[in-house]
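Running this now, will post back.
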Amino acid sequence: MAATEEQTLIITEIFYSIQGEGSFAGEPCAFVRLTGCHLRCLWCDSEYSFFGGEKISLADILDRLRKFPTKNVEITGGEPLLQKNVYSLMNLLNDNGYKIMLETSGARSIEQVPAFVHIVMDLKAPGSGEVEKNIYSNLNYLKPSDDLKVVIRDEADFHWTEKLVKDKNIHAKLMRPPIVQPSFGEMEPAKLAELVKQSALPFRLGLQLHKYIYSPELTGV
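Update: finished.
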């Protein structure tokens, strides 16, 4: 979808921080958090983005991003693919030389996401309470360079993820191993690290770096 300056998105926040997750963890990054989500994961840490927000034109979003000293931008939520104009934002950012990351739940189709976007698909394990919302055909649209991430609440979630990766042959399709990330405050990182070490399949242990750098209660970081 071609971008026009008049198109708008409902935005919860636009901020500059350190990327905390995925293949670009540790890099400075600007974030555009879209409002709205159709999931209610039990471990969700962005419930404040479910409602409210501010209607902002694509031109104004770009102007705000230009104030940050980075060309890395993550589009996140909520679930950003609920708003149709998000595709126009992706195209506008690409036209202006940004490296674009998209954090999406895997519960909306990613078929139309442009190839220049780095997708981080946050598929839901049973411990989320939303496993039935997964669209598994999305796995067919992941590029080798994309990331698959699963938040792990307990050992059962990890073994569910192992079975999924094995059954779908995901580890052979992606350039980097799938990410398993402990649910903050619920799954001990050391315990998940041991499960990763013992698994016959390749995984990456992911930690939400921003929650260790800053207070986990803060927004806009």
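The helical segments are 58-65, 86-95, 155-168, 170-173, 189-198, 209-213. More later if anyone needs it.
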